[in-house]
Structure formats: structure tokens, C-alpha cells
Amino acid sequence: MGALETMMPPPKRARLNGVEIGYYEAGPREGVPIVLSHGFPELAFSWRHQIKALGDAGRWVIAPDQRGYGLSGKPGKVPDYDIDHLTGDMAALLDHLGVEKAVFCGHDWGGLVVWQMPLIHPGRVAGVIGLNTPFMPRGPSDPIAGMRARFGPDMYIVWFQNPDEPEAVLGADTTWTMDFFMRKPAAAPADPPPSASGSTFAFRDLLKMWDPSSDARERLLSPDELAVFADAFRDGGFFGPVSWYRNFTRNWERSATLPGRIDGIPCLMITAELDAVLPPSAAEHMPAFIGDLETKLVKGSGHWTQQEKPDEVNRLMLDWLDRRFPK
Fold it and tell me: Is residue 80 annotated as a catalytic residue, yes or no?
């Protein structure tokens, strides 16, 4: 058996919000459940260490492969991946499980989803845990235009707006792609070198130039763990995952009618010291927008915090849950 079978509970499936969602569940079906929302390019498997720790601690934990990923359905139109669909899947998952409210915990893109849950589905949220990804108040202008102006056309989120090419490049060799992404930080965080066009975070060019034999970053995953990610994206492709990014402008336009702050629920923000994409400084504004917030720092971790420093993440989550949602 591979790592997916040995490190995860048996998968479950349900038709939710117009798409089939595959999800994993552990712990007793009692108390306030914790729903884990993964990022890009990840899977529910990214939460394998938290699923075991939370379940072993007697917490009901649920981790879906979100739409476009892994075992879940992969709709073929870009608007199928906007924030209303992504948060709607989470609410529908609670409906399927017969649950009124959950604590939502999200990393990377999953963090964007869970911070929007109390704004779009306030009656379904008992609390929020952000991992690396802070709550981001609505900006004054289209975020893609801003990123294009600041980082250039090849910055990965701007590049992802182009049709077809990003998923072709990322999907050409998924073992290569996932091995490039899933590494620990080499040292102190620093922006990747710019592309020929001057763009930073130009993953297209970095993937082409990358030489794993000279990469100073330590591998994060065992070969069996890497195979789980590589196989999932080889089978499912990157159209769905990249299309999450293609809705940045749509989501910004939609957010004009949403509340601008979160009050009335406890929130935990866990930052990672060496995350170059989402540094701790990105969360410094949050106390002005969240009424009940605790912030914790995981030292020595890069971007893949729940996989790089699972024991520390588990400790921080369980400590907060035990205080704010005692069993």
C-alpha cells in the first residue's frame, strides 16, 4: 500500500453543491468539528498529520479534497471555482454531515476560503484558524491589476490568468513539478530571482531552470508521499486548481457587498517564520479587522507549515481548541 492508504482514513464521497466531493474523516462524531481546507497545489493529504493528531485527541476532523483536486469533481468552467462555489462546498459539506457549525482551518488558498466563510456563511462558522494565510481586507482595486503592476506579467498568479499554458507547464511532469514545490526553505526567506521580464515568483521560468541536484532546499516529502501528489495531479490535471486563481477579479468584485471585518467568533492565526510567499508581516494588520484574535509564530518553517512542522502546528491547534472549544 502507498502513503495515501497508510496515512489517511478511508475516503468518503458525497454529491455536494453540484459536484462530487471526496473527503476524509477521523475522531468521534461529537462536539464542534474541525474542517481542514488545503491550498495550492495540495490535497487533503497535506493535512495527514493533523487528521491523525486531532482524531487521536478526540476531535471530530474532516478534510475534503476541494473541487478541482484529488478525489473531487473537476468542473470545466472557470466561474465554477469562484469564492461562492468554494465556500458553498464547505457549507454543503456541513449539511451533508448534519452539522450546524464548524471550526474552519485553512492553509494557503484554503486560508482565503476559510476567512471568507464567516463573511459569506456566518451562521455556519464557530471559529477560524488561518495557517500562513492572513485575513485580507478588500482592497481598493482589482488585485490582478495590482499584482501585474507590482510583480510583472510572469508572476505566477498573473501568469495563471492566461488560458491553457499554466496547466500544460505544471502538468508536463507532475513528479518534477511537485518535487520543485514541496521543499523546505534553504535559509532566511527571500524572493525568488526575477524572470527575464523582471517578474518575481515566476514559477514558469523557475521550473524550466530548476536543477534538483543543485537545489539547496531539503526535500519535504518521502518518495511515497511525493507520489501521492504527483499521481493526483497527473490524473486530475491543473485546470481546476489554476482556475481558483482565475477568479481573483470576480471574487474581488463580489466582495463589495460583504462585511469588512470578523466579529463574534474566536480566530487563531498561525504564521511561519520562513514563508517567502506569506510572511508573518502579512498578518500584522489583522487585529484591526478581527475582534477576537490570537496570533502564533512557528519558527523555522517555510510555506508548507502543517507538513514541515506538524508537531508544532498540532500543539498550537489543540491548545487553542481546548481553550476555546473544550470537549
Answer: no
